[in-house]
Specification:
Length: about 325
Amino acid sequence: MYEKGAVICGYEISERLGSGGLSEDYKARGTDGSFVTLKFPSPELVGDPATYERFQRELKIGQTLKHPAIPRALLISETRTGPCLVMEFIEGRSLRTILHGRGRLPLEEALEITGQLAEVLSYLHSHGVYHRDLKPENVLIDAQGKVHIIDFGNALLQGARRVTWRNLSDILGTPDYMAPEQIQGKRGDARTDLYAMGIMFYEMLTGAVPFQGDNAMAVMHQHLTATVTPIPSELAIPANVESIIRKTIRKDPKERYQSAETFLADLTHYKELDLAQFPREEKKATGLVTNRQIWILGVVIALGFLAVIGLIIIFAMMKKG
């Protein structure tokens, strides 16, 4: 962890922004007074060859995409402990911070945020990029109400080979927002991002995600098997809006919206939609994992977490030594 005032990669650390499964992020000031985001590998990933490849991929994605809602990637620098990715800094509050302070959002505000998200996803997907870790922490709202998507550390660039982490499971994502196919270990596509967006839409309107549990495995099991809890009638959410959400978070990707454009078209004209086009019951999805496979998956993830904790302890002892 870097302290405020430390100069790294030619930038002065201003504050720590937080950490995810793959990186630790800092706000830093350049010599010209402008701010950037510095991303460093999480301690358990230092020395893993996949780390540099992931950073290279995120750099390529950030340099390829030209959209005001997506931070530009500037360069990769080398530090004593590994690579440092320099990104454009986006000033704003995370959707998580907003939800934490307000609980849930009014319908029109949730519709506006979700509509903007769909527009950005449409741009991403048209360029062969799938985020695969959409969650309120990775959505920023600036002072003008504009939506930004950040943290492409788990993004998939169409055609790129699979990157395997030496010490982590291939299943990357956040359980509350993971689509069933991600839990199965598949790479995911546009429909995977739409699923996560649908979960966030539900959360914005109700103040809670539709699938909850005491641990990550319980939540993932519900994504695979449980029925979505209906939105309470006292919230007065239009039936058409709830039907759109249900279609977005179907367990079988074939039953979801197939693109951000078709989702956005229905969202924009939700008042005119015919409810008959939204079957209430889901067809039985094929290819879902069995309870035994879920148990095995839990063991693998638990072992991975133990390995990560051990590496963090070793890393801390090496720093003290």
